[in-house]
Amino acid sequence: MNRPRILFLSHRLPFPPNRGDRIRAFNLIRFLSEYGDIYLGSVADEPWQESQIQGLEELCAQVRVFRLPPRGRWLRAATGFAMFRSATEGAFHSPELQAQVERWAQEPFDAAVIFCSSMGQYVSSFQRAAKRLIVDFVDVDSQKWADYAHESSPPKKWLYQIEARRVAKIEKELTQVASACLVVSPEEAEIFRSWHPDQSVLPLSNGVDHEYFSPHAIPADRVAALRVSKPQLVFVGVLDYFPNVHGLQWFCREVLPLLRERFPGLGLDVVGRNPNEEVLALGRLPGVRIVGPVDDVRPYVLACDAAIAPLRIARGIQNKVLEALACGRPVIASPQAATGIKDVGGILVAGEPEEWLDHLESLQEIDFYRQNAELARSQVVENYSWKAKLSPLLKILELNP
Q1: What pTM value is reported for the model?
Q2: Does residue 231 have a cis bond before it (omega within 30 degrees)?
Q3: Residue 106: what are its φ and ψ, rounded to 5°?
Q4: Which residue among 66, 121, 225, 369 has the highest number of C-beta atoms inside a 10 angstrom radius?
Q5: Which helix or strand (DSSP H or E) is residue 258 part of?
Q6: Rounded CA separation 165/181 (Å)
């Protein structure tokens, strides 16, 4: 008996799973590969290694990735914007991927997954419609652009407002052709309905690999070597991503001085890819160490007393929060970054700088710290495995378990 054919279109090469969208896309592919043959089509604006393709080929029947030249990508984005389309569509448009989808879809797929609204433009390339079409918006991109507009000044503000309206139009069009549409949390579903009150959307949460992110995953001596501050905080994320940069700047300028006044030896490790000039400038502040890209974030998370997630523009499920909790480390998070998982033990939600200080002081009590660390790990293991979170997909896509 032939296995179901499943098309998966991703706006980024989903391997290695080292950032939020890649983590979700990779785990969707890994889960679905147990129930069908995956045909993965993706674009990438960075060069990739053969090992990345090999890692995906272990899960997929076919993998096709097409390079988006960095400069050409932004030119296409500007051209699309000037032609009254969204910059998002232009930025992720690849004639080569479009032709590949046309070839693949000459025979109808049993299921197709469109990952993020930017890939919705390729639905028109289907020669024959998929039997079941799922659009995973993950986050509501129209709201993301509206948030950017709120935090920006003209002329960027005006451009972001226009992009928000155009992406909202894409979202609505996709809901009208999809069998089902997904977002990452119930809160995100409410935001989606505020933009599209007549459309249906289903929340499908992220999970975490709690065996990989484990308190005992890294040798103790390797972790101890990274303990350079007391207390020690860590932030993990892509360091040229606007919400991460925006949140870090706020934390380092508004919260960190207050924390260091109470704890003079406090340090913050900032770990992640592509630190931009704004992030590098934060490294000149007392107590801030810009670690930058690393092969493995786990030693830095395990070396910390608490992870922080100070994002002011954030929704959905923050993988960085789940990963720290799985490592048995408490997380102090803004209300925005705690969305969708704020009821899990180990998360301390802080808005104003004084609340951050109160939580950090509480964590100095050893019994309180141990209770939060143990609760964080146990509840993530129980409630946030990828298999448990993604199992509703089988019914949605009409795949046999």
Answers
A1: 0.84
A2: yes
A3: -65, -30
A4: 121
A5: helix 256-262
A6: 19
C-alpha 73/C-alpha 239 separation (Å) is 20
Containing H/E element for 31? helix 20-32
pLDDT tens-digit series, residues 253-286: 999 999 999 999 999 999 999 999 999 999 999 9
Type of residue numbered 265:
G
Residue 216: which region, alpha, beta or left (left: phi > 0; alpha: psi -120 to 50)? alpha
**pLDDT at position 116 over 80:** yes
- Tokens 């939600």 correspond to 349
Which phi and psi (to 5°) does residue 65 adopt? -120, 135
Cβ distance 379 to 345 under 8 Å? yes
Residue pair 199/175 in contact by the 8 Å Cβ criterion: yes
Which amino acid, residue 63?
V
Q: What are phi and psi of 176, to 5 degrees?
A: -80, -15
Q: What are phi and psi of 134, to 5 degrees?
A: -110, 135
Which sign, positive or negative, has the C-alpha torsion 47, 247, 145, 111?
positive
pLDDT digits (tens, 9 = 90+) for 64-106: 999 987 766 666 666 667 666 788 888 899 999 999 999 999 9
* Residue 279 contacts residue 301 (beta carbons within 8 Å): no
